[in-house]
From TrEMBL, chain A:
It is found in: Membrane. Residues 222-387 form the Spore germination GerAC-like C-terminal domain. This is Spore germination protein KC. It is a lipid-anchor. InterPro entries: GerAC_N, Spore_GerAC-like, Spore_GerAC-like_C, Spore_GerAC_C_sf. Keywords: Germination, Lipoprotein, Membrane, Palmitate, Signal. Its main location: membrane.
TrEMBL record, chain B:
The keyword rRNA processing does not apply. Signal peptide: none annotated. The chain crosses the membrane at residues 280-302, 352-372, 378-396, 408-431. Belongs to the GerABKA family. The keyword Transferase does not apply. This is Spore germination protein KA. InterPro entries: Spore_Ger, UPF0353/GerABKA_families. Keywords: Membrane, Transmembrane, Transmembrane helix. It comes from Thermobacillus xylanilyticus. It comes from the Bacteria. Coiled coil: none annotated.
Amino acid sequence: MRRKRKDMLANGRRTAPAFLSLLVCAFLLAGCWNAREVNDLAIITATGVDLTEDGQIELSVKIYLTSPSGSGSMSGQPDGNKGTSVVRSVTGINMADAASRLQKKISRKVFWGQADVFLFGERMARAGLEAPMDFLMRHIASRERAHVFVCDGPAKNVLLLSPSIERSVADALVHMAEQQTGLNITMMDLAQMLISKSKAAVLPIVVIREEQGEKQSFPYIQGVSVIKNGKMIGRVNEDVTRGIMWLRNEIKQATVTVSPEQSDGYVSLHLHRSQTRLIPKIEGGRWIMTVRITGQDDIVENTSDLDLSVPDHIGKVEKELEKVVNTRVKMALGQAQKEFKADIFQFADNFYRKYPKIWEANADRWDEIFPEVEVRLETDLRIARPGLIGKNFFRQEQR
Amino acid sequence: MKLSNHLRENLRRLRAVYSDCADVVFHDMVIGGHTPAMLVYIEGLIRLEELDQHVVAPLRDGPGPNPALQDIRNQTTVASVQTCGTIEETVEKISGGNPVLLVEGQNAALVFGLSSWEQRSVEEPTAESVLRGPREGFIETMRTNIAMLRRKIRSPKLKVVTLHIGTCSRTPVAVIYIEGIAQPSLVREIMSRLNRIEIEDVLETSYIEEWIEDNRYSPFPQLLSTERPDVASAYLMEGRVVVMVDGTPTVLIAPTTFFSLLQTPEDYYERYVVGTAIRWLRYFFLAISLLGPSLYVAVVTFHQEMIPTTLMLTMARSREQIPFSALMEAILMETMFEALREAGARLPKQIGSAVSIVGALVIGQAAISAGIVSAPMVMVVAITGIASFMAPRFTIGIPIRLLRFPIMFLAGMMGLLGMILGVIIILNHMLNLRSFGVPYMSPLAPMKNSGLKDVLWRAPRWMLNRRGKR
């Protein structure tokens, strides 16, 4: 017995190096799994999807040029010189087809991992987003956190811009979206909206501001496109957009200017915290949605003759503020319920969560129910900080 | 072999032993004008003046005829006098630097404790300097070193057991522990392992370290070495055992855990908030020094989507003209860095600075301008280099620096997956290690709550029950 063990030990001592070298070989011979060097990649920063006249998909990508062009390349500085990106487009019968054709046109491996911006041309959006969305959500490398926009016109035109402030058009759009002055919808949000009970979604619209000279033109976000059943059915203007954002609890910062009654001049308020809650209720066959908007504001400017150190006056301004917000929200509601009949505020999911059974029974009728949902607004906006001064001392008559 | 009664017989044997030893002095003398005697000593290892004054001079006037050994002994004015009865013992004493007096008609020799040799003064150890705390360090003389410990722990419970290791060098080795704190089984184990050593010479504690550690193939040190008496006494108070070797200022401390290798005396001398913060910083940079380049290689070759977009674009730009893959680049630079560091360490100070200047150029701007390496890589190497200097002890810094390379390979071949694989293998090995029966990763694994307060943070002194900690 003991002898056997000894033999085994001796064997182990002899086989260990062999085993080890085999192990090393296994690693070395297998090569480097899917290794790809940074300088073998074509880094896509923004992607545009358009529909051509003949119903094909035109995929345009903005590729960051990593090779230092011309002189001064050794400085090693990531200089912001323009023309550091190039746009390539291909057409194909669907996204995957176009993507594979794209690879044929580019000497480097197409890398989607850093694509932060996805743009859909207006025609594409109106035709339907189901096809491209399947590819984008299925694809491993594309980011769910990428920002999605609809373009006013072909997406390629936006990609061709190189705004002077940012490194590339992708950066510009990402930063604009993240400021949350307009809607900020990521791929994830869009996917969730599209598969939600309400079957409606919103996407911010990118508009090109044309200036003389290509370098001077820049894109910006204006308005919202309304998407129902995967297809864009219309767009709303800037004021209604704010209303939509209030209802979707997406207002992060806002400056509202009101004109209080019985006073000339304006008071401007900066909202620094707000929350919107949707409280569904079904009462005897009536579908009621209570929208409770709460928030806190600072007064940033007062050109009226109100003395804002007086609590009564503050109350007055608060009332006025609520009125303004209510107006915007009602505008948005009106358009969504009557004009588009698209539940872009995700009312359906709220009803479903609270009344799953009733919802199931009425799921097919939602398109009829939604326009008739009674919305009750409960707006409660408070002024937290009237600022350092009460009256506007600089108006002569107020001294 | 016993000493004989005849001086001439004893001398013949001794001279045979010390043939061709020019430094051994056989000093002929006559005690009290009647008894022939011989004083044997080694030049340079004794206090000659004191020998003259306290042995040679008193004995010249000596005791009466036919003195007993005790009479001769009483005649001298030396505090430390021993007797020995065999040739072997006599030789050992003489070689140890003690003058030995052989007297006609005596079958025993007198050994005078007058050994002394040139020794370095007690200085602050350069490898373990502190901002606050004692500035003394061990020196090459064991006697002085033990005295230093004794001065810090003035208890009779501080036990010092000496033995000689090295069939040729007969180097004195001391095993020091505190009775009642150190576990007797641990002391026994250390003694038995020391007794099993079969080597010819012991020039440094590392000679015996490799003999007595539990896993002889591990890259990790399983014994802590220090040059600081305060560190040694602190560990003695924790129940650990100090092994000291004559001729080297480094002492060994057993058992040792991974986390005690990451501590510095200053963790305890500074306020606990500072101690804790520095400790965390050290842990963090330890991880960096092991994984820094691998992480870079893995992310750059496999996981480009993990890098923030802006950084990614900048990096892509800087890597554009680099002919090598990130892995090659990393290995090139890390090897270069290690070479520079080694070159600098062995050179005299004056030339050392020249090396660092050239090195800064080589792995600095010039390499980037030449298009051989990318700027981010240089940064990663620099950060890793600094991180590796954060290791409080050289012995723990080395394995981590070396293990960096295999992990780099794994990262270059399999990305983060490979990196994690490497870390798992290393952790697995470390969890397997034991130092004199104590798990290497304790008190983290196996988890011991009472010990964690000296690992996860440096608890205030009143919370540290040092005795319970291992």
